[in-house]
């Protein structure tokens, strides 16, 4: 890839994402206005996410006009593969929830759908499918440079959940490495964005169904089962690819800078 073309792609990615992020800062006010029209909070929530994401859809189209936007994100990949893998990965969190936590007594269906399905889908679409995915797939950026800024922004976006300094650092660390984890799944499952989408959604669902914590931090037991979910996903992915004689995509040749043709 020519240097000028690479620079053009990088600029398109950052301009598109910066515009999206600027629009997202007005998400609440936009949703209120749409609420007045739809009178349906969940529909307004989804529409607001789609509207603020217009710069990302446009940027994806401009980066590669020959490939459909759906394929560029990784949404044309096998959904069934994502379903069974994500269920397997998140079993520790659900089994842990059933064994050690009570069911939440304050479940609102609309909020549950918004906080699990919608949030899981949109966050993976914009952060992993676009910001990380386009950098890693369309440029010579290695895995770490491609994920770093996206993970930083993603983690910063969850800091509102903190009540004190220790929670702030804890939430930042968990969400930062969570972003790295979802990006790794995306890459290793052949850019099937449905894998991190469903894994993210089910992890969020477990957090909402059981009385674990009001923030992304959680206590020791909750994080133990979350850690087991992540470990299960990583080990299964490695073994799965090894048994099929497939190399890991994230390796020494791609961790910092990809060579031409990789």
Characterize the structure shown:
The protein is an all-alpha fold and 262 residues long. Helices cover 73% and strands 0% of the residues. The protein has helices spanning 3-24, 27-38, 41-52, 54-63, 69-73, 79-100, 109-138, 143-156, 165-188, 194-209, 220-243. Helix 7 (109-138) crosses helix 9. The chain is globular. The model has no long low-confidence stretch (mean pLDDT 91).
What's the layout of helices and strands?
Layout (H helix, E strand, L loop, with lengths): L2 H22 L2 H12 L2 H12 L1 H10 L5 H5 L5 H22 L8 H30 L4 H14 L8 H24 L5 H16 L10 H24 L19
Helix pairs in contact: 1-4, 1-7, 2-3, 3-7, 6-10, 6-11, 7-8, 7-9, 7-10, 8-9, 9-10
Would you identify the regions where 5 or more consecutive residues have pLDDT less than 50? none
Radius of gyration: 19 Å
Strand content: under 5%
Instruction: Please report the number of helical segments.
Output: 11
Number of strands: 0
Helix-strand makeup class: mainly alpha
| Shape assignment | globular
Features:
262 residues; mainly alpha; 73% helix
What is this structure, in a nutshell?
By secondary structure, this protein is mostly helical.
